Amino acid sequence: MEASTHPRTLLLVDDKADVLAALRRLLRPDGYKILTALGGAAGLDILKKQPVDVILSEQRMQHMSGVEFLSQARLVQPDCVRMALTGYLEIQSIAKTVNEGAIYKFLTKPWDDEQLRATLREAFVYKELADDNRRLAAELSRANQNLILANQRLQALLEEKQHQLARDEKVLDVLHEVMQILPLPLLGVDDSGMIATTNEAARQAFGDNGEVLLLGQQISALLPPESLRAADADKRERGSAFTAPNARAYTLFCRALGQHSAASGRLFIFIPDKATP
Known about the structure:
This protein has two domains: 9-138, 3-Layer(aba) Sandwich (Rossmann fold), CATH 3.40.50.2300; 182-272, Beta-Lactamase, CATH 3.30.450. It has eight helices and ten strands. The chain has helices at 17-27, 40-49, 66-76, 91-100, 113-181, 200-206, 219-222, 225-232, and strands at residues 9-14, 33-38, 54-58, 81-86, 105-108, 186-189, 195-198, 240-243, 249-256, 266-272. The strands form two sheets. It has a five-stranded parallel sheet, with helices on both faces. A five-stranded antiparallel sheet has the order 7-6-10-9-8, covered by helices on one side. Strand 4, helix 4 and strand 5 (105-108) form a beta-alpha-beta unit. Helix 2 (40-49) packs parallel to helix 3 (66-76).
């Protein structure tokens, strides 16, 4: 809801033109945009065409009483502040309407000029505070709605990430199983040179039987320096000769990780020599 930008607008309703003229003269110095209507029907026509902040209506009018007019005005512009001018003898007849909210306040006749002006100033302040409250409530409602939408998007993103993690875990399980099934000894080494992953063929080749644990070791403690130098200098089309602790001869290849993924480190691949059992 946008803050109001129109001037303070006052609608005066009476079926006597001289009373309207007197009220206009009295209130002109206060800087209001003053609209006048000769009777309730004319007042409703004005309300249907432009916004009004405060209405001051005579109670005793011929064709439509002030209470009837203000009750209908509430339906046309529910946020405007509605006040009635009434005689002392009519106060009880409109008290119920005040209690029901159709009328904000009533003033008795004959009115006191300064009291009337002060009451109207209070009515405009009341209207502006009510408008601010409605605007802030609307902004809060929009903020809450945006927060709900953001939470829904976050929840959807979280669920998507969870599904992706579940899929990735399955892929890793498959890759781990494939790695274990391969008959080639494999050693995955991180950037610090620590053995981070291995397979069953490597454990058999290097005697990982509870006495020699491969995971967590430095690759330099497992391979002699000349094999490491040869492997680091290796090209894809050739490897270096290596004899494992199980006395079997292998051709050792070393491949840098990260060419097709975000992984880093090296993979050592041992191809068994067919000439040895």
